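Worked Example 4.2. Consider the chain below.
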Amino acid sequence: MNQTSIAVRALLMVLITSLSGCGSQKEYTGEKRFPITGTVSFKGEPVSSGMISLIPEDGNSNPAGGPIENGTFSIPEEKGPNKATYRVAVYWRKPTGKKVKDADTGEEIDQVKQVIPAKYNDATELSVVVAGNPEEDVLKLDLTE
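Applying the procedure from the previous section yields the following structure tokens:
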């Protein structure tokens, strides 16, 4: 399985986890989840609008993730990770200045490019241990080239 398909599967798991409960009032009965917050910058610039994903290394814990806005993210307890070790993936797509045709609508849209290197997303080298303590579960990700 290649790194891109792993990243796609991880994002799908985050989306499914985020959407589970929509339309259903079923109470979560799994292991305790914890909130996690943090900041993300790339080459000194705050990630203005991106996505962060926490992918469990043990394969049993819940994935977590959410949007990055103005260099910060906050994943609430109800959507947060369990106590476990996670791989961290950061995505940030920026417009290239070019226009392309949308495959579905044929409309001209801004072409975007992933600006964060693969070592921080599809082939992530980032890892975090979620301790279940709000003071410890604050990430500061200063990503470089």
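Residues 84 and 130 are 5 Å apart (CA to CA). The first strand starts at residue 36 and ends at 42. Compare this with Example 4.1 before moving on.
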